[in-house]
Amino acid sequence: MEICIHDLWNEYELIDCGNGRKLERFGEITLIRPEITATGKPHLSEAQWKGMANAEFVETSKNSGRWDIFKPIPETWQMKYTSRSHKRPLSVSRREADGMSTASQREETHITAELSLTTSKHIGIFPEQVINWQFIERESASYGHESFLNLFGYTGLSTVFASNFFVKATHIDSIRKVVEWTRHNAENSGRNNIRLITEDAQKFVEREIKRGNKYDGIILDPPAIGSGAKNEKWIFDEMIENLLTNVNLIAKDKSFIIMNLYSHSVYGMEVRELLHKCFPHHNIEMCEEVKGVSQFGGKISHGVFVWMKKI
Fold first, then answer.
1. Which residues make Cβ contacts (< 8 Å) with residue 298, sequence separation at least 6?
2. Per-domain residue ranges for the chain?
């Protein structure tokens, strides 16, 4: 599947890519960042890239680097996403909503993302998540509206978006700094129904099983390698099957699940086999690699996107 994110969200644009880098615009700020999947040649010249960019992240080791600044850039800046939804307002019952006109049910859903340069190449957002937000918006009307869970939630934009469609959204990440970042995004977006928890995702799910808590919608974004809040080790290839088996136990009988997979060891049919094993009663709506297309036709990989539903 190929997508041009700019067509879905005009505040973001993949301008060009190639030679292991990408040139992107985030609102008013344009950045150059490393991109291992940008294997082609860029359309624009190096001088054109540098002339457009505010800054470039230069890797100095596997997990760190520096930002070379070309033009003034604020400590933080914002991007806004607006979706004109047809959601059922959470303040009314399903019966009441069924009797309302389409116009009365239509609402604009806003989220505000706070962005910042960090000591890694990441800046607080993965714009490709917009297709997951559209899935949440489209599917939420078919499910219960009580609870939504985001595991490995990073700065929480998916949590904030989903909180518009659920009574309560729970956000889990093992890094306190990004959980606080989520708090800022929620406040900037006017959302106050989000539970923020700094905890290892595996441990949280195990505790939810014991507590008997279940969710109408779940999204998870497991990294290839990571560490928990108490330095617990996360190794995708060794731990993903156990995690997914447990996630299935906290999904309601009628539920949907979204996943993003970035580990190159689980592409293709392997992913489907794993999903059928761990989620035997969910139907797989999508399980494929998503590629982002630049303004000039270059492509980068956003990993494998998975959408599953149990109705």
1. 14, 16, 17, 18, 38, 40, 42, 43
2. 2-69, 125-310
User: Considering only the top CATH level, what class is 125-310?
Assistant: alpha beta
Q: Is residue 290 a contact partner of residue 305, using CB atoms and an 8 Å limit?
A: yes
Give tens-digit pLDDT for 101-139.
343 345 678 899 999 999 989 999 999 999 999 999 999
Would the pLDDT of 145 be above 70?
yes
pLDDT digits over 262-273, tens only?
866 565 558 899
Q: Which residues contact 35 (CB under 8 A, 6 or more apart)?
A: 17, 20, 21, 22, 300
Q: Does domain 2-69 have CATH number 2.60.40.1180?
A: yes
What are the tokens at 175?
Answer: 């890094």
Q: Which of 121, 124, 125, 126 is nearest to 62 (CA)?
A: 121
The average pLDDT across 240-255 equals 96
Q: Is residue 4 scored above 70 in pLDDT?
A: yes
The pLDDT of residue 130: 97
b/e string for 168-203 if b means 16 or more Cβ within 10 A?
A: ebbbbbbbeebbebbebbbebbebeebebebbbbbe
* pLDDT for the residue 7: 96
The residues with which 12 forms a beta bridge, in sequence order, are 26
